[in-house]
Amino acid sequence: MRPFHDGRGLGRGLTRNSLRSARSADDFPPATRYTHSMRIVVNALPLVNVRTGIGRYVDMLYRELAQRPGIEIAYFDGARVTRVIPASPASTAGWSLLTKAFWLLPSPVAVLIRAMLHHLRERRFLRLCKGFDIYHETALLPFRTPPGTKTVLTVHDLGLLRHPQWHPAERARFFDRFFVKRLPQVDGFLAVSEFTRREMGELLGIDPGRVAVSRLGIDLNSFSRPAPDQIRSVRERYSLPERYFLFVGSGDPRKNVHLVRQALKLAPELPPLAIAGWSGWDNAPPADGRELRLGYVDDADLPALYAGALAFVYPSLYEGFGLPILEAMACGCPVVTTGLASLPEVAGDAALYLDDPTNPAALASLLRRLDADPDLRQGLGEAGLAQVSKFPWRGTADATMRLFNSTMDRRKAEPSGQGGGVSCMTRSSA
Description:
By secondary structure, the chain is α/β, with parallel strands linked by helices. The chain folds into two domains: 16-217 and 394-413, Rossmann fold; 228-388, Rossmann fold (3-Layer(aba) Sandwich), CATH 3.40.50.2000. The chain is built from 16 helices and 13 strands. The strands form two sheets. The protein has a seven-stranded mixed sheet. Helix 9 (228-237) crosses helix 11 (302-308) and helix 12 packs across helix 15. Residues 242-384 form the Glycosyl transferase family domain.
């Protein structure tokens, strides 16, 4: 389909002149304008960098919503607005190097740069994204919107407020400085779990009744147990042994990967740990022969990696949802996780839970049980397949559309330009 604007944007030659010349939706002939009853513009930036859980959320939610009548969807990728879901980058190497270099900057400088980038993107958003009914902020900090456009914010977690020490200092400072100030402009809130909804009330003072829960889902067409020859082929491509434990995710401190390392040191007879995902700021040297770092793995290879593992080990200390748990279960992989934050909502009764996420000996004991007991692994795998059936992306889309519709109803009842407003607290008062 024809894009709204193919101009060059942030990171690709954005200048003051290009901002002036960029055209809004109102500048296009009627054939390219939205004519349906609800017009939605989505922050699609999570799709154009390295693909994480938030990127998967945006991708799958809007593939589902795009099939529904009565709505038109546009995607703002920081440079332009299009009707086509942005594709993931072919390579993540450049993004990874740039991000790690950014973290080496003095925190005040990095905060200033991040604020300037956000401001430039916001100016372009305001110019291009006129005439929409709903602006869906899918990532973090809402842009200001043109008059008449309602803002819906998805909150994935509040780790930057709850545990700022687990994040780069510049990111925590930026969030603390700007996020709460933007909340009064938000007209509707989505939380990805009941846990996150409670956190929003506790840390931000938002009435939980104003927050709709829209749990993430799992695409069983993309995540299911592959054929044995495909599992073997992927295992050989990544030089993995026949028996291994698997962790999928970034190297952020909250993921608690160091606990698995400590557990395997206590149990040297156990198979090694394979780690798939961007390393983040995890600079710990790999344990000799006990840790296999795969780096960022293509989505197409993940099902075989999950299916070939003895277990998926996910001892996270804090999650807003925990999508990799569903991915592992959909592929028949047993799951070990913790009972913290949102994780019990996702894993239900289909996982082994680590009672003390600071105790490597306890984790080593669970891993020994799984290694020695094929019946336990089979039982957990079957329970996981039943659990994932509770999380279709269709349900995510249904909850999202209910909030969009109620937000539109309030828009019709309010004076033009009136926002929803929200009572909120700063970190110092929380």
